[in-house]
Write a structure and sequence with these properties.
The complex is a heterodimer.
Chain A (H helix, E strand, L loop, with lengths): L1 E8 L3 H12 L4 E5 L6 H6 L1 H20 L14 H25 L2 E5 L1 E6 L2 E5 L5 E11 L3 E3 L12 E2 L1 H4 L8 E5 L3 H12 L3 E5 L11 H13 L3 E3 L2 E9 L2 E8 L2 E7 L1 E4 L3 E3 L6 H4 L22 E3 L10 H15 L13 E3 L4 E6 L2 H6 L4 E7 L4 H6 L5 E7 L5 E8 L2 H13 L4 H5 L9 H11 L10
Parallel strand pairs in A: 1-2, 1-6, 2-3, 6-17, 8-15, 9-10, 9-15, 10-11
Antiparallel strand pairs in A: 4-5, 5-6, 7-16, 12-13, 13-14, 18-19, 19-22, 20-21, 21-22
Chain B lengths: L1 E5 L9 E7 L6 E2 L4 E6 L4 E5 L4 E5 L5 E4 L3 E6 L24 H8 L12 H9 L18 H17 L4 H9 L13 H16 L2 E9 L1 H18 L6 H14 L5 E4 L2 E4 L5 E3 L1 E3 L2 E3 L2 E2 L7 H16 L5 H4 L4 E5 L18 E5 L3 E7 L2 E15 L5 H16 L9
Parallel strand pairs in B: 12-16, 16-17
Antiparallel strand pairs in B: 1-8, 2-4, 2-7, 3-6, 4-5, 6-8, 9-19, 10-11, 12-15, 13-14, 17-19, 18-19
Helix pairs in contact in B: 2-3, 3-5, 7-8, 7-10
The chains are: A alpha/beta, B alpha+beta.
């Protein structure tokens, strides 16, 4: 038996980052991954391939719809989807081989196979050829991630009813794509195929899209996506999906009435389930919560000594960066240092165009907590750089404590919101106020000036709009 | 080596200023970055900090007009710091983190470097405009940094002090004209003292404060303490005092008369459903009231540990603003100083405060006979805007009953 300081099960962003940190701290580390490639969902069938397609399809939309406004004449612009998919695959390969190289440089031993905890301190790895290896370790970190939720009346068949995994790999844009679930994944993949020529219809059970994000900005995003051609049906509950001759018919109820939708492909993106079974946690007695997530304390410890868990398999937002930070904190705690994650300063992002980003509290959440708050807003149609770019959709919104002016939440809807939100995350980490951002010099002309102006608008002294 | 402390250039066209307040005196050891004095000019008031650590020797006096470049003090950096700097105690691992995550995280992190606090833009503005001493304000931001909220609160305390105590204009002139003699010594009140003064006056001017009295026989509690002291101390590593009994009795009384656990805010009455009890502690710099959180959920041992922990923190000047905020009711024990009978003042925005006093053996009537019992007078000062006389009396009677018959309390030892 090989003996380690820590064995990490799962090589997604939570697992592989934890492995790097463990290597940096001099721990003898093993990383177990059941797939052939490292990187988990994020690198292989999640964040990375989706962002590659989103950018490629975004450029296509620019060439098709925007270039003319800039006096750029492009005749016969069209999409070579196989080439687009090849580029995406190349990007994924760069990442997965990059992670493998990082494991080498950090002296992490990788094991390919399904990792199962057989007893505290013991992990057995069963590879695809049937061989089993036993690993002995002082600590185990479960980082097994999550899988798409399957609807019982619309089970995945890999062809017509698909999850995000297949929806990333369509070899041609489906003529009609039905998306069930208007969260980040549904909105992003729906956007990709809408841009590439599909007729996209999105069904959502709640009365709004993008649950968890600022409501005003989510509604604005919905209007903009509708203008891009996506059809939304909210407060619509799907009851059944029938396949006939390779085409699907979905039956749904909306406002007491029954509606039928037909489609060539149905993407089910209603959420993800923690992958807590199969890692042997149950056998060893690791407790799960009511949502089948692994129960941990604030130090990522399960109820069994020496067994930890991080990432999508435990509670909290299912985000790669949250898993990464937890991976780092968990390893630092194992190494006897102080590790912590500030969940109030983790941003969520939807990579549509415009992107929707948010960190901290929304107005509704502040209201629910009974906090006396003030709001500052600024539209990009009044921003210098956005006007130069001919890209003026979106706005910035700050939620600040009415008494102390401390920033409680920041929300941005803009083409580059994912980058712009970082400033607000930093300021929230330091307990800063809207006035702090308002008094910081922001370069001109940049999109970031809108962030500053929204902060100034909290105290009703923005410069380029009428303060209300 | 002696380093000169000179008046720095603070702006174009400013050639002189006034040393308005010295924060340190000759002989003091100063740390690099610590504020030495406030320099006032016609345009701006600014804190001048020590550039190096060492022993200070002042050369200019308060009120003295000085020119830019003038030497007003020296710092001897060959002398090292005196032993008074205490080492940080390691964070109490006993305190289980079901309190707010942030509070626990700050305990686990390194102690904040109190001398060097980079000021954010908003903080800088407020410190300048309100003439605050940043070094004297405790920060609740990351690593102890000052947040806008921290300095706004400090400015508010200072402002109220200025408004509450109004000097007739001539007094200010007299101050300049009158030389200091032996018949009186003028000493500027510390920011903490000024803040407390402002709070006291504000409390009296806002609430309709009345006090009701009662007395309680401490014999049952004393007997219980004697009986259980050894096993309690052995099991919990701390002695069983009186405060835990009174905190528990106060919680029972607050449950029986909930209105005492509320507060008035503008036109609303807010009923608190949690029990964060402030326990007044006297320090050389003034009275502070750290809060024992969720006192209803804590055991006697946990209460005693909380109080002891706060006493240590306050002696070492390590209490944080969050330790003092958010209480729903306060207990003040004047008995430790010998007070027999007093009228406590409310701790705003709370509506009630329980005053404990000296336990004095006194002859009392028990079943028709005269006996000497260890008696304590109890006082409840309350906000009559929210609490009726009957409710206040009932509250105090409940406290008395729980003390005289401790079985009425959730004893856990």
């Amino acid at each position: 038996m090989e003996k380690f300081d820590v064995v990490i099960i799962g090589s997604g962003p939570g697992g592989y980052i934890a492995a790097i940190r463990a290597g940096q701290l001099g721990l003898k580390t093993a990383l177990v991954e059941k797939e052939k490639e490292l990187g988990g969902t994020c690198l292989n069938i999640g964040c990375i391939p989706s962002k590659a397609l989103l950018t490629s399809s975004d450029h296509f939309m620019f060439a098709k719809k925007e270039a003319g406004k800039h006096g750029i004449v492009i005749d016969g612009v069209h999409v070579d989807l196989p080439k687009m998919q090849q580029r995406k695959d190349k990007v994924v390969k760069t990442f997965t081989s990059g992670v493998r190289a990082l494991m080498k440089t950090n002296k992490v031993t990788t094991f390919e196979g399904l990792g199962t905890i057989t007893a505290p301190g013991k992990v057995s790895v069963k590879s695809s050829n049937g061989q089993t290896q036993e690993l002995e370790t002082k600590n185990i970190v479960i980082a097994t991630g999550s899988t798409p939720v399957e609807l019982p009346f619309a089970k995945f068949d890999g062809k017509t009813i698909v999850s995000s995994t297949e929806a990333l790999c369509f070899t041609e844009p489906p003529k009609k794509l039905l998306v069930i679930g208007a969260g980040a994944i549904g909105l992003e993949l729906g956007s990709v195929w809408n841009r590439l020529g599909s007729e996209v219809t999105m069904l959502e059970f709640l009365p709004r899209i993008a649950v968890g994000f600022d409501l005003e900005l989510s509604n604005l995003l919905q209007r903009l996506l509708t203008a891009q051609g996506i059809v939304f049906h909210l407060e619509t509950k799907v009851r059944a999906v029938k396949i006939d001759n390779g085409r699907a018919t979905a039956t749904a109820t909306k406002g007491g009435e029954e509606i039928k939708f037909d489609a060539d492909k149905v993407l089910v993106s209603v959420g993800r389930n923690p992958f807590s079974e199969g890692v042997g946690a149950g056998k060893v007695g690791v407790e799960l919560d009511e949502k089948k997530r692994i129960k941990v304390d604030k130090h990522f410890r399960t109820n069994i000594e020496g067994i930890y868990a991080i990432g999508d398999v435990i509670a909290g937002p299912m985000l790669a960066h949250k898993a990464e930070d937890e991976g780092i904190a968990c390893i630092e705690i194992i190494a006897g240092k102080a590790g912590h994650v500030n969940y109030d300063a983790i941003a969520g992002i939807i990579y549509t165009n415009p992107e929707l980003a948010g960190v901290g509290l929304t107005e509704d959440q502040a209201k629910e907590k009974g906090i006396d708050y003030r709001v500052g807003k600024f539209p990009f149609r009044a921003n210098s750089r956005a006007l130069c770019n001919e890209d003026v959709d979106g706005m910035v919104k700050f939620v600040a404590d009415a008494k102390t002016d401390r920033i409680l939440g920041a929300h941005i809807l803009q083409h580059a919101a994912s980058e712009l939100i970082a400033e607000a995350v930093s300021v929230i980490e330091f307990g800063g106020s809207s006035e702090d951002i308002g008094r910081t010099c922001h370069s001109h002309p940049t999109l970031s000036e809108a962030v500053r102006e929204a902060a100034l608008n909290v105290e009703k002294r923005a410069l380029h709009i009428l303060n209300r | 080596m002696s380093i000169e402390v000179k008046i720095p250039a603070v702006g174009e066209s400013i050639s002189s200023g006034v040393v308005s307040v010295w924060h340190k005196k000759s002989g003091d050891f100063v740390d690099a970055g610590e504020a030495l004095f406030t320099l006032e000019t016609e345009k701006v008031s600014t804190e001048i900090v020590a550039e190096k650590s060492g022993v200070l020797e002042t050369k200019a006096v308060e009120g003295q007009e000085v020119k830019i470049g003038e030497v007003v003090a020296t710092i001897d950096d060959s002398k090292s710091a005196p032993e008074e700097k205490k080492t940080e105690k390691p964070p109490e691992k006993k305190k289980e983190p079901d309190a707010e995550k942030k509070r626990v995280e700050e305990k686990e992190r390194k102690t904040p470097p109190e001398k060097e606090k980079p000021l954010s833009p908003a903080v800088r503005r407020i410190v300048e405009e309100e003439h605050l001493e940043a070094a004297n304000i405790s920060g609740t931001g990351k690593d102890g940094r000052l947040t806008k909220g921290d300095v706004l609160a400090a400015a508010q305390g200072q402002k109220s002090a200025g408004e509450a105590v109004s000097f007739p204009p001539s007094a200010a002139e007299d101050r300049q004209a009158q030389p200091e003699t032996d018949r009186f010594i003028r000493r500027k009140m510390s920011p903490l003292r000024r803040k407390i003064a402002a709070q006291l006056v504000m409390a009296q001017q806002t609430a309709a404060i009345l006090t009701t009295f009662n007395e309680c026989d401490m014999r049952a509690v004393q007997e219980l303490r004697v009986k259980s002291q050894e096993s309690f101390t052995k099991k919990n590593g701390i002695k069983l005092g009186f405060m835990s009994f009174f905190i528990k009795a106060a919680v029972e009384a607050l449950k029986a008369v909930p209105v005492v656990n509320g507060r008035i805010e503008d036109d609303d009455f807010i009923q608190n459903n949690f029990y964060d009890i402030g326990v007044a502690v006297g320090t050389e710099r003034g009275l502070v009231v750290p809060i024992v959180r969720d006192a209803d959920k804590k055991s006697f041992a946990e209460l005693e540990l909380d109080i002891a922990g706060y006493a240590v923190k306050s002696r070492e000047g390590k209490l944080k603003i969050e330790d003092l905020q958010g209480g729903t009711f306060t207990i003040s024990n004047g008995g430790v100083y010998g007070s027999l009978f007093s009228t406590p003042i409310l701790n705003p925005p709370q509506s009630g405060i329980l005053g404990m006093h000296k336990i004095m053996p006194r002859p009392v009537a028990v079943d028709g006979k005269v006996e000497v019992r260890p008696m304590m007078y109890l006082a409840l000062s309350y906000d009559h805007r929210a609490i009726d006389g009957k409710e206040a009396v009932t509250f105090l009677i409940k406290v008395k009953e729980c003390i005289e018959d401790p079985k009425k309390l959730p004893l856990d030892f």
